[in-house]
Sequence to fold (987 residues):
Amino acid sequence: MSNTTLGKPHRSDPADVSSSIYDVVIVGAGVSGAIIANELSQTGFRVLILEAGPGHDLTIPGYEQYLSRFYASASKDNNAPYPRNRNAPMPRSTDVRRLQPGEPDASGYIVQNGPLALDSTYTRVVGGTTMHWEGKALRMLPEDFEMRTRFGRGLDWPISYEQLAPYYRKAEFELGVSADVEDQAYHGIRFDPGYVYPMRGIPASYLDKTVARGLNGAEVTLRGEKFALTVRGTPQARNGVPNPRYDGGKGYVPVGAVSVEQVEQGERCQGNNNCVPICPVQAKYHAGKTLVKALATGRVKLLPQAVASKVVIDPGNGRVRHIEFKAYSDPGSTEHATGIARGRVFVLAANAVENARLMLASDLPGTSNLVGRNLMDHPFLLTWGLMPEITGTLRGTQSTSGIQDLRGGAFRRHQAAFAVSIHNDGWSWATGSPYSVLADIVDRQNQFGAALRRRLVDQVSRQLQLAFMVELLPDQNNRVTVDARYTDPLGNLRPVISYGLSDYTLDGIAYSRRLSRLIFQRLGVEDHTTYDPLDYAYVSYKGEGYTVRGGNHWAGTHIMGTSAKDSVVDGAQRSWDHENLYLVGAGSMPTTGTSNTTLTLSALSFLTAERIRGELDQDRSPATIAAA
Amino acid sequence: MSLKRITTLDELHNYLHAAMQLEHATIPPYLTALYSIQPGTNSAAFHVLRVVVVEEMLHLTLAANILNAVGGAPDLAREGFVPLYPAYLPDGETDFEVGLQRFSREAVETFLRIERPARSSEESQRLVRRQRVDRGLLPTFRAEDDSDLHFYSIGEFYQEIGRGLAYLQEEKAKSGETLFSGDPARQITPDYYYSGGGEIIPVSNLETAQEAIRLISEQGEGFGKRIYDYEGELSHYYRFQQLVLGRYYRKGDAPDHPSGGPVDVDWDAVYPVKTNACLADYPQPSELHAAAVEFNARYKDFLGRLTQAFSGRPELLLDAVGDMFRIRETASQLMRNPIPGTSGLNAAPTFEMPLPTET
Fold:
């Protein structure tokens, strides 16, 4: 019962919820749900949020439980800080195994149908996946919205970069993005005159500067097009130095740790270097920061430990009648009560996998039959080596700079674009360093004492890891489905995913590997990259093998478009089939280009909140309380 | 040192140097209590102490801003800037001891006295004639008849600074000059300093100087007998009181009656560090002694870096973050280790600043 005592003032119980009609019912207390709840509650609407996971994170001790679990955990994977919860299970990268052709692997929460095993995850707690995200907040390129028109590949969005730009600004405020605007106008990204980010760019690490010194200005040719490489600061949603020029000179006040009691903490980034899976000082944005503002209005009810299980449609008019949920009081027991949530508007803000899973479990594949299809992620190719000199690796936040020059270009007619991150945390993602390096020096090199310390420092502080984040286009065969054979302990259908990489993307991956060799050569880096053919994520392509990691950027499962035939939602994320239903998040994106999805899906949430507000305003008659 | 009524710029500088010294002097006691808490325990107490330390650093920085604004030169590395502990603060008719000690009920009692000392009830009582202890943190006040008086409490000391600023500015204005002629580039601005509560105020005129003084003297005690200060932030006194009363304050609560969630304090989950430890307590040579010497050297380097930051290089405050991690690490190492022959007392940083090496 300890889970229900913390943060109690902001909770509701399932029975109360079922007897009310809310203006808006939101499924999921992640970033999309938090933004929409905040925007609508601030203007007077009553909002209910159903959250599948436990909700004790809005206090400092609650947050610290996550930290302690992370520190104590032998595996430092994305979900290491968050408790195992049988009633709202989470995918974990440690669950993924090599697939045998034709044999689905149901050993983890997500059933993997292949052909490629995908180790992407998401987090089912209050705050959602923003609890473990890295915080990169890059806008998409204008050309990413017009892939079909410009390159004959993928899909066009029904809205343009220009239409989304005002909402990008709101998202950059809400998430508290640190970046220098003069570094970010490339490949057609345009900012309003005089615009600055809320905070100045996070300072480049010594490693970044060393790489930049060796690399800036280097020219590469890709299918006849010349690109000059530049190491560029990465916009990120973590607290840095506020820019006094923000908002016409009004400046910006960074948002620290959230708590229902007054405890100031969570200031600027201290470079703790474990942003993923949890920032120890809450310098990194997480959706709880938006959620506390929404809860403070007194018009938002947050019901944690309530797993949405069915969207119930009125067969007469296609409108959502209510959402069924299963509320459990103890994460260790499957004992639960079923409740219903009623409202005027319903918003599914779970994430691209869970939104699709819930719709399909409710037998709602859509007129287009596109619910669950076009599943996308960002495949990552990691390459790693040792710099010729000590570069202070493991200092600074996980990544402060990257190479963005190959995110756009005419070559996208033929092969995938990609963005490159320079990792201040060394080979951590690729090899489990520094823990693996320590074990190696002790066990295989028999070193101890001062020699051990020296060798560890020498090896770790020269590490360079580049992460190539490669574009993946929508493909109807990559998809989320459900299957009555696979259920979770509460009886909810589990997601089954089919996932593979097209030649378009594989060409981008192969090119990334070649480019990394070139970069390493220029920097004098000793290449230590190896891809193990026994790895679950190993793929062979044109005679070479690669290990392809998941990017946790689930998208595309309810894409937006121009009609009910070609898409699931419209440009404001409203369902074509059910007029009081919105499916929000990266699932609505027809393409994701080479941007981490959170900033764009946050911008979309602001756009959608505005649309919902307009609709609710039209019908201002207050929601009436009906007897259950 | 004794101070006179502020009638000259030099005397104002003396006061502001003393103010910086005073604001800093509470930091070693708070840090000692903070770091004596065993990792992973006492979350509530840890955060209360941490916020107060951060805000004492804010006060120190505000005092430096005022000093810079009136053409002074902050120097935190000079001999005697860090007091020897235990030191004493005035509390009306008496002085009380401020020492380096582990987190305990007694320590919190001291912190409560630091944050809300007695206030004199009458104007004539602002200065008192009484016996003075050695190691007083506040300078004495040299009266016109050359006898030494004592500030009734810290509040009276700041009141005199406020009065002196207004007086000198008025004098300067008569000849068309300004007291606030310091280089604006030496001000620490919110760019380089922000904390969860309370904001840095760049000082450029009498108004901002008075605002800074108000923040320094009210953040501790609350504003007009309320539990929240002018910025709507719980004052230090009431933050500490939460640890004693076992409950958080919420908006709207009356003093002494917090109604928020419970505050759990485990007074035993604390390293048993020696009170007011000094280098002489550690055998020599020993790793313990070497670590304590190293701590003091690092702390001195840190103060040197702050001095540079307050002298026109505010970007050095970013490097000072790294210094603070090193200070914490070294302090924790000391506190985890027993002092041989003391039957159960652990070491602690001594904050005895090394003297400048003679050349």
